[in-house]
């Protein structure tokens, strides 16, 4: 015989006594009554019987027969209607009791809910997953919300430092003081937990709220617990705060990001006081966005980095960086994502073959080039997936065919290519497309007046002959954006139609989904009319007038 204790250990209580089914309400019974066989309405007496009632004459035999039938039908339904009316009155009398029972069930059935059986450590994990980690995405602060559910949850949240380890302050105008109070509260309640800190502050935030304590001083006090630090702040507000961090003072730091949110003004040269980063043993991600930011003077644990972003806010550095791309990539063998603003005062000599580099880990490369920088002949990136190159200098950023040679040499699985160039030849562009077997998205913004897009588009047309020996170029292309000076309608139409409806012998060609182009207004109008069928078929066609 199983004892009660054994039964409780073997089977959870909420399975032994499952919550009861929802009881029927009075409205449910009314619905059942309406769906039950109804009692017909009493038959009205014929007009001749009504007339006979107003006289002293007896009914005729035919009228008497009809009258007997009418009385019989009415008498037959008297008792059922009486029973049903009695039942309805009884149900109305039971409504208060029924409501009381229903309230008892709804109030106490939650005691058997499975969530009450979860141990506290599992609940804390769930609470931590509900929080986004940064706190800046929404004004909803997860710890505060959980504390308002019940006293046990409040006690659990207050006793779990991990739930307070993502302090964030957001400049929301009049609510900045309240946001800072929550930020300070998180720093206090997080105890020794690693911190994910975020701050989003705009120009003159300290003057708009003069009583605000020094937020950056408080942040630096907890530097030994930093796991991620994201500062979207006016650069001048940092001052010398970061320079107070001692050597080896950030042992847990994995991500460091500083973005300048102040209007662009002269006199600032990058993020100050970040020398402590060179001794950060866990650092993997560095994002710096500030006017005139260069790599000169920045000491980082290069061989640890997996992501590096240096953005000088479209403002070239007054002094060129001595660290070129090839040297940087050689120092960062584990780099996966690289976004750089390249500086060069004078065109340098193309490196010889002994200075070439093959980087096997780089997947994403985003370059903004302010001066001619002949780095492509030195690089081979066999695993590159995304390439963005932007150069609006009046001189060509590299020798002709350097880009196509780079793609041919790398044989990389490139999926997204963006080229915003002041100079590129038509033949070079055609050669580039011949090496993009895996590309899905292409954007070409060319400001070279000698570039003709018609031959480029013609090279991408899917052949309509079954005897074609050459496979179509860019078979996976789904999205293309083009902007250039020379552009005529028919090659564009042929390209779009052949890519939108590839014939049966080219089943490996992906259907084109998105096309964006810039052309004169009359050309755009003609293209819209000619490609209306493709647009109705689902093609996203965006044509902007010059």
Q: What labels describe this entry?
A:
alpha/beta, 20 helices, 546 residues, two-stranded parallel sheet, 16 strands, 14-stranded parallel sheet
Strand order of the largest sheet: 1-2-3-4-5-6-7-9-11-12-13-14-15-16
Strand content: 15-25%
* N-end to C-end Cα span: 89 Å
What structural class do the secondary elements suggest?
alpha/beta
Mean pLDDT: 79
What CATH architecture of one domain do you see? Alpha-Beta Horseshoe
CATH topology of one domain: Leucine-rich repeat, LRR (right-handed beta-alpha superhelix)
What general form does the structure show? Answer: flat
Main sheet attributes: strand count, strand direction, barrel closure: 14 strands, parallel
Strand segment count:
16
Which regions are unreliable across 5 or more consecutive residues at pLDDT < 50?
1-19, 345-353
Pfam family, one: F-box-like
Protein name: F-box domain-containing protein
């Amino acid at each position: 015989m199983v004892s009660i204790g054994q039964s409780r250990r073997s089977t959870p209580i909420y399975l032994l006594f499952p919550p009861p089914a929802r009881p029927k309400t009075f409205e449910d019974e009314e619905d059942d009554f309406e769906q039950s066989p109804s009692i017909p309405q009493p038959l009205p007496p014929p007009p001749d019987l009504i007339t006979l009632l107003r006289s002293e004459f007896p009914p005729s035999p035919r009228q008497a027969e009809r009258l007997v039938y009418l009385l019989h039908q009415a008498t037959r339904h008297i008792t059922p209607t009486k029973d049903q009316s009695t039942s309805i009155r009884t149900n109305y009398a039971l409504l208060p009791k029924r409501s009381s029972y229903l309230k008892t069930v709804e109030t106490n059935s939650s005691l058997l809910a499975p969530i009450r059986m979860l141990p506290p450590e599992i609940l804390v994990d769930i609470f931590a997953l509900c929080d986004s980690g940064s706190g800046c995405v929404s004004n909803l602060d997860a710890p505060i919300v959980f504390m308002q559910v019940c006293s046990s949850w409040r006690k659990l949240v207050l006793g779990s430092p991990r739930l307070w380890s993502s302090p964030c302050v957001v400049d929301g105008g009049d609510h900045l003081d309240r946001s800072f109070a929550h930020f300070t509260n998180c720093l206090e309640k997080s105890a020794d937990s690693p911190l994910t800190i975020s701050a989003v502050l705009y120009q003159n935030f300290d003057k708009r709220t003069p009583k605000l304590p020094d937020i950056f001083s408080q942040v630096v006090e907890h530097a030994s617990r930093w796991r991620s630090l994201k500062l979207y702040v006016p650069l001048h507000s940092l001052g010398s705060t970061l320079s107070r961090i001692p050597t080896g003072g950030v042992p847990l730091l994995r991500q460091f990001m500083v973005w300048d949110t102040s209007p662009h003004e002269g006199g600032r040269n990058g993020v100050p006081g970040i020398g402590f980063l060179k001794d950060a043993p866990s650092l993997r991600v560095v994002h710096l966005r500030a006017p005139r930011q260069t790599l000169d003077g920045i000491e980082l644990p290069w061989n640890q980095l997996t992501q590096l972003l240096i953005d000088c806010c479209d403002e070239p550095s007054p002094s060129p960086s001595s660290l070129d791309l090839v040297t940087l990539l050689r120092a960062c063998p584990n780099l996966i994502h690289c976004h750089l603003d390249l500086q060069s005062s004078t065109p340098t000599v193309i490196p010889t073959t002994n200075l070439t580099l093959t980087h096997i880990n780089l997947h994403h490369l985003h370059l903004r080039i302010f001066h001619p920088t002949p780095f492509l002949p030195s690089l081979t990136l066999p695993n590159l997936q995304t390439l963005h190159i932007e150069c609006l200098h009046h001189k060509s950023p590299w020798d002709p065919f350097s880009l196509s040679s780079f793609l041919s040499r790398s044989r990389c699985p490139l999926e997204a290519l963006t080229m915003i160039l002041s100079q590129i030849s038509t033949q070079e562009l055609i050669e580039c497309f011949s090496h993009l077997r895996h590309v899905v998205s292409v954007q070409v913004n060319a400001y070279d007046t000698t570039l003709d897009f018609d031959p480029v588009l013609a090279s991408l047309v899917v052949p309509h002959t079954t005897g074609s020996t050459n496979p179509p170029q860019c078979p996976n292309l789904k999205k293309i954006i083009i902007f250039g000076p020379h552009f005529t309608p028919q090659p564009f139409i042929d390209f779009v139609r052949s890519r939108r409806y590839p014939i049966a012998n080219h089943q490996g060609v992906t259907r084109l989904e998105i096309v964006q182009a810039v052309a004169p207004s009359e050309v755009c109008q003609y293209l819209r009319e000619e490609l209306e069928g493709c647009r109705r078929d689902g093609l996203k066609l965006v044509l902007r007038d010059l």
